Amino acid sequence: MYRTLCALLLVLAAAALAFAQTQRGPMTTVPPDVVKDLAPTGKLRAAINLGNPVLAQKGPGGEPRGVTVDLANELARRSGLVLELVPFDAAGKVFEALKAGAWDIAFLAIEPVRAAEIAFTEPYVIIEGVYMVPKESALQTVAEVDRAGTRIAVNKGSAYDLFLTRTIKNATIVRGESGVDLFVKDKLEVAAGVKQPLVAYAKTNPNVRIMDGRFMEIRQAMGTPQGRNAAAGYLRTFVEEMKASGFVADALKRSNQPDATVAPAATH
Known about the structure:
The protein is of the alpha/beta class. The chain has helices spanning about 1-25, 30-40, 65-80, 90-95, 110-115, 160-165, 180-185, 195-205, 230-245, 245-255; strands at about 45-50, 55-60, 65, 80-90, 105-110, 120, 125-135, 150-155, 170-175, 190-195, 210, 215-225, 260. A hairpin with a 5-residue loop joins strand 2 (about 55-60) and strand 3 (about 65).
């Protein structure tokens, strides 16, 4: 009888806890001030850049998936917030949408221009920026690209656009919605971009080749609008845990991105 009574009490306690959670929302270990800072509207709006296939891809039904979607879902789960994915087709458009307050967290490469308005974590993934050229191009090394008469096609507002704008001295940067399309249409000398999609393109196009070496290291991080200090501090800790636990590595494998490198742990 005693055991039956104890079992009944445990069932009632569990039911009461479940009912309380439905009234108050999911339990969370994230401090209330952080939750409020992460999602002032009450909903966690995560910008997803579908223009970078290393970070996000479209599923069979067109839904976003990939490492950034997995990270956004895990953050929402921990904070007890409803997640809203806000898809974009280019990183530059994600940054532009910040002015309109369209998102609460984003997944972008760390760049000084962006860092003035976005509080970044340390990177969670490192990818490479490489050059693609016509197969018969005389250009052989990365260093040779920066010379007068060379036109470099880039995706407008991308991390490599911002980087090359700062560092290229002699070549000309040509910007468009699709750098590869510009490269092909206008018969430009070079296309710059993220390594994985350019390599995939070159495999199916025998008239182009990928140059050896990289022109930059693209440090992909999470970010939130500047001024949200509580949220920014939590995101930094969150990203480090996601790297150390193997979460990021597993998410990359699930999304078939084995060539992407998990960033090392922060040193400070």
